[in-house]
Amino acid sequence: MSSVPKLRLGVNIDHVATVRQARGTDYPDPVAAALLAAGAGADGITLHLREDRRHIQDHDLKRLLPLCPVPINLEMAVTDEMLAIACAARPAHVCLVPEKRQERTTEGGLDIAGAPRLIAQACARLHDAGIAVSLFIDPEAAQLDAAQGLAPNLEINTGAYAEANDAKTRDALIEKIAGFARSATAAGFQVHAGHGLNCDNVAPVAAIADIVELNIGHALIARALFIGLPGAIAELRAEMLRARGH
Ligand code: PXP
Known about the structure:
- By secondary structure, this protein is an alpha/beta fold.
- It has one domain: Aldolase class I (TIM Barrel, Alpha-Beta Barrel), CATH 3.20.20.70.
- The chain has helices spanning 14-23, 30-39, 58-67, 80-89, 116-128, 141-147, 159-163, 167-186, 202-206, 218-227, 229-244, and strands at 8-12, 44-48, 72-76, 93-96, 132-137, 153-157, 190-194, 211-216.
- It has an eight-stranded parallel beta barrel with strand order 1-2-3-4-5-6-7-8, surrounded by six helices.
- α2 (30-39) runs parallel beside α3 (58-67).
- The protein is globular.
- It starts with 7 loop residues before the first strand and ends with a helix.
- The mean pLDDT is 95.
- Pyridoxine-5'-phosphate binds at residues 12, 14, 48, 75, 95, 97, 105-106, 136, 155, 194-197, 215-219.
């Protein structure tokens, strides 16, 4: 038995909804994808209800809540509208992310240090509703300092690592992520990571023992087009386990 903690896999179903929204049909159904993913071993289901509703819709969250056999992680921006939705829906987890209308996907982490009161108030509201909050941040010491006492979980933005196109930059970013994860764990946070991860680049992140959860969407759903969702999850899970030494 390895003493390295288990690494959970949160499957993000947003891009099943992206395909549906492209045609305005009622298929493919992200809720059906979530149930399939849970049956195929996903430890949690993540969905991002964006302000512009470009993929996940309010009714997806409503339908998923009573059916999902694994914890739901709702990604959302720090707005009054989203806070009201989350506090009414009460998913197990909320991950607060920055959101820009023009971006294709989440760019960069939350600037907690730049808006400490706003984020502290949001965390308090979610906490009072019984929701475990995660803050999606870049692996920067200033953000870790600003996050102290606000939430039980931090999710490290791995986007810069995933986008780096040379080995030296990637290695340096893995060092940075590992150092940050160590400090965050020592400070009492549960550390998650995600963004841009896939079967080819997940191993160095999965090998960081202080990280206990990965949230992966786009590459997993893209791979599922060719080999099906259970196969894509199995492939990714095998890579995570291999990297973890399990
Ligand atoms: N974590 C967070 C906070 C995100 O915003 C996203 C994208 O929705 C992901 C993880 C998953 O990223 P990807 O779709 O690139 O795997």
